[in-house]
Amino acid sequence: MKKRINDRSLRSIVQRLLKDKYTFTALTILSILYLSIAFAGFIAPYSKEFSDRHLSYAPPSKVFTITPEGKLSWPYTYNYKRTFNPNTFKMDFKLDRSQRYYLKFFSKGDDYKLFGFIPCDIHLFSVDSKNGRLFLLGTDINGRDNFSRLLYGGQISLTIGFIALFISFPIGLLYGGISGYAGGKVDNAMMRLTEAIMSIPSFYLLISLAAILPANMTSSQRFTLITVILAFIGWAGFSRVVRGMVLSIKKQEYVDAAKAIGAHPLRIIAKHILPQTASYVIVAITLSVPGYILAESGLSFLGLGIQQPDASWGNMLKEAQEYINVINRPWLLIPGGLIFIAVLSFNLIGDAVRDILDPKSKLN
Amino acid sequence: MKGKYKSFLKIGLISLLAAFSLKACLVADIPESNITTEKNNENNSFEIASAKSVRPFKNIEINGVDYIQARGKIGKFGGTLYTSTIGEGPKTFNPWNAKDATSSTMGELMFDGLVATDPYTGEVVPQLAKSIKVLPSNKEYIITLRKGIKWSDGKPITAKDVVFTWNDIIIAGYGNTSMLDSIMVNGKPPKVEFIDDYTVRFITPEPFAPFLRILGQSIAPKHILEPVVKKGKKEFASFWGVSTPPKNFVTSGKFKLKWYIPAQRVEFVKNPDYYVVDKKDQKLPYLDNYIMYIVGDLNNQVLKFEAGDIDILGVRGSNVARFKELEKNSDYKMYNLGPNTGTAFATFNMNRKKDENGKYYVNPVKQKWFNDINFRKAVDYAIDRENMVSNVLHGVGAPLFTAESYSSMYLNHKLKKGHPKNIDKAKELLAKSGFKWNKSGKLLDKDNNKVEFNLYTNAGNTEREAVGVMLKQDLEELGMQVNFKPIEFNVLVGKLNNSLDWDTIIIALTGSSLEPHGGKNVWTSTGALHLFDQRKEKDLKNIADIREWEKELDYLFNLGAKTLDIDKRREIYDRYQEIVYNQAPMVYLYSSLRIFAIRKKFGNINPTKLGGMMHNLEEIYLKE
Question: Which residue of B has its CA nearest to A90?
Answer without folding.
Answer: B321
